[in-house]
Write a structure and sequence with these properties.
By secondary structure, this protein is of the alpha+beta class. It is about 20% helix and about 30% strand. The protein has a six-stranded antiparallel beta barrel with strand order 1-2-3-6-5-4. A five-stranded antiparallel β-sheet has the order 8-7-9-10-11. It has a five-stranded mixed β-sheet with strand order 12-13-14-15-16.
Length: about 400
């Protein structure tokens, strides 16, 4: 279209070799004629139609790169979080007057442990168990109004400890929870972000209460508490810093149990079988598991159905009740199964929690036992006939 302007035709452009699309144009002056003086060549004309797309491209690329970096910093790899934080997450076991007694927790520096106070109401004895099976006693320092309990581990552990994050993560940053599931194994699940959280009821069970909320580096940014899963909530980092700080402000003493009979968790006990899984070993595993589960549930009448006629006659119901009314057995490992004639010998390692005031406790509340159970068969059933200590009880700490 004729715009009304009159200009000389533009000379053709030369394209440098190897350049597919020129970003700027290169112009040459007209040839010099004899006797005609020419002015110095003018600089190449500015061509906005070529430069503007370049600027837009650079701006878009820069903005996109920043968005990608920000997005990457907000996401997490759950497997990596589990690898980094798993050794510092512990299982809490307790005998209490209310009989709750199980939760997850996180081990911090100086032997401090944070967990859900719902697991240690009116405690008689408390222990923590690591993912490698190490057991340590713990004292209850107190609990907060929002459901955090602070414990002090007795003794030491080789496990690395968790670190509280230096600041709250961005609201859009992903978080994960590492905690124990009912079968005693560690699990990791995404909690979503504070901006778009996953419903806690979709990722929790009762044993995960007390589990830490973690950022992508495995640092603690919250703790899951609550009396039940439907009532669960995440206590924020600022509160945890307060509770784990010097003097633990906001933490009040937890009243110790005064009941005559305390209870631990009532879930079924399944001993670990470290010998060949023969039919006899499987039968022993079932019997020992049933024996320990029934003991933990304080079903002393039912327990007697697992005794041989000789043991039932020598051990009265009243004696059984007195000996075990505060005990909780856990972590059994069957390390030997042999048979001599009609007698089967099963060597079992396990831990036991009990009241420090119980008969023979001597102020302790957790022991590691190594017993050999002698089992006999009566009317086709394998039954407990007696137990003999292979080694003296060892304190958990």
């Amino acid at each position: 279209m004729d715009s009304g302007r009159r200009e000389l035709p533009k000379p053709p452009r030369r394209i440098p070799a190897g350049v597919l699309t020129p970003l700027t144009s290169i112009e040459t002056p007209p040839p010099r004629l004899p006797g005609v003086t020419t002015q110095p060549p003018l600089p190449p004309k500015f061509r906005p139609r070529f430069v503007v797309p370049l600027i837009v491209f650079v701006l878009v690329l820069g903005a996109g790169a920043g968005w990608l970096i920000r997005e990457d910093s907000l996401t997490l790899d759950t497997a990596e979080v589990l690898r980094k934080s798993g050794p510092s997450v512990v299982k809490i076991l307790a005998t209490t007057c209310e009989g709750t007694g199980i939760a997850s927790g996180v081990l911090l520096d100086n032997g401090l442990v944070l967990t859900a106070s719902s697991a240690i109401k009116q405690p008689m004895s408390v222990a923590l168990v690591t993912s490698t099976g190490d057991v340590r006693r713990a004292n209850v320092l107190g609990s907060s109004a929002d459901g955090v309990a602070v414990l002090r581990m007795i003794g030491q552990l080789p496990n690395p400890t968790a670190q509280l994050a230096s600041k709250e993560p961005p609201r859009g940053a992903d978080r994960a929870v590492v905690a124990y599931i009912a079968n005693g194994l560690l699990s990791v699940l995404s909690l979503g972000s504070a901006k778009d959280p996953a419903p806690l009821t979709s990722v929790l069970n009762a044993t995960k209460l007390g589990g830490p909320a973690l950022d992508r580096s495995g640092r603690v940014v919250g703790l899951i508490t609550g009396d039940t899963v439907p009532k669960a909530t995440i206590v924020p980092l600022a509160k945890l810093r307060q509770y784990a700080g010097t003097g633990q402000p906001g933490i009040t003493p937890e009243p110790g149990g005064t009941c005559v009979r305390s209870r631990g968790p009532s879930a079924a006990i399944v001993p670990e079988l470290t010998v060949a899984n023969t039919p006899l070993a499987a039968e022993v595993q079932t019997l020992i598991g049933t024996y320990m589960t029934t003991t933990n549930r304080h079903d002393f009448v039912g327990l007697r159905a697992l005794y041989s006629a000789r043991l039932a006659k020598s051990l009265t119901l009243a004696e059984d009740t007195e000996h075990h009314q505060t005990t909780y057995l856990f972590g059994p490992r069957i390390i030997e199964v042999t048979q001599v004639g009609e007698t089967v010998n099963a060597r079992v390692n396990y831990s036991v929690l009990f009241s420090p005031n119980s008969v023979g406790a001597l102020g302790q509340s957790c022991n590691r036992l190594d017993n050999r159970y002698q089992l006999v068969r009566e009317k086709g059933r394998l039954l407990v006939d007696r137990a003999v200590a292979v080694r003296a009880p060892q304190p958990c700490d």
